[in-house]
Amino acid sequence: MSLIFLVGFMGCGKTSWGRKLAAGLDFTFIDLDHKLEAQVGTTVAEYFATHGEEKFRLLESEILKTTDYPENTVVSTGGGLPCFFDNMDWMTSHGQTLYIQLSPKALAHRLENAKTPRPVLQGKKGDDLAEFIEHKLAEREGFYLKATHHVDGMSMSVDGLKEVVGAI
Ligand SMILES: Nc1ncnc2c1ncn2[C@@H]1O[C@H](COP(=O)(O)OP(=O)(O)O)[C@@H](O)[C@H]1O
Ligand SMILES: O=C(O)C1=C[C@@H](OP(=O)(O)O)[C@@H](O)[C@H](O)C1
Ligand SMILES: [Mg+2]
Question: Which residues participate in substrate binding (predicted)?
Fold first, then answer.
């Protein structure tokens, strides 16, 4: 049973790399935000707006822990998931965890241009966004660093990721 959880800040590439890595390994791909959206029938942003962050955190944790994962699966998590409850410990005890590390500057650049709205960012732009990311990443990175493997988000490739997974 190989279960690989991708963790990291919003915009580091968990969803896009997760899909590519799963295809490269011939694994199943699950994005927990997509799973939540399918379950509640709205987008993450709409769910936040209607029910608030606290309910979202409870639901994403429940989905993480109750999903019936197929044998070989790459799981992309939401950027906040490792930082709530015992979610990070749960992932490290149920599979391998891989932190996609990116600088606040690179994250700000991606999130400024991202199509999917991130409610946690509250529509921030420019310097406000950059400052917010720096603080939020500092707050969250201790959780991400608990991951068993760390990869540089700027110099990633599917083959490089496969090598890391092979080593696992
Ligand atoms: N390797 C990359 N280089 C540049 N931009 C990227 C790369 N991977 C993802 N992006 C962009 O960054 C944004 C966030 O990617 P996504 O996979 O949704 O990240 P996450 O799931 O970690 O929030 C998207 O707009 C995507 O197009
Ligand atoms: O960092 C966060 O708190 C969040 C990250 C999002 O996922 P991505 O990291 O895939 O953007 C999504 O779960 C939600 O908007 C909250
Ligand atoms: Mg994502």
Answer: 33, 57, 79, 140
In this prediction the ipTM stands at 0.96
**Domains plus CATH for the chain?**
2-167 (3.40.50.300)
Closest ligand 1 atom to the C-alpha of 118? 23
The candidate with the shortest Cα–Cα distance to 111, out of 99, 125, 93, is 125
pLDDT tens per residue, range 145-160: 999 999 999 998 888 8
- Of the candidates 5, 4, 9, 6, which has an alpha carbon nearest to the alpha carbon of residue 141? 9
Per-residue pLDDT tens over the stretch 10-45? 999 999 999 999 999 999 999 999 999 999 999 999
State the closest ligand 1 atom to the C-alpha of 10, by its place in the atom list counted from 1: 23
Q: Which residues are annotated as a binding site?
A: 11-16, 33, 57, 79, 118, 140
Is the Cβ atom of 14 under 6 angstroms away from ligand 2?
yes
In angstroms, how far apart are the furthest CA atoms of the chain?
44
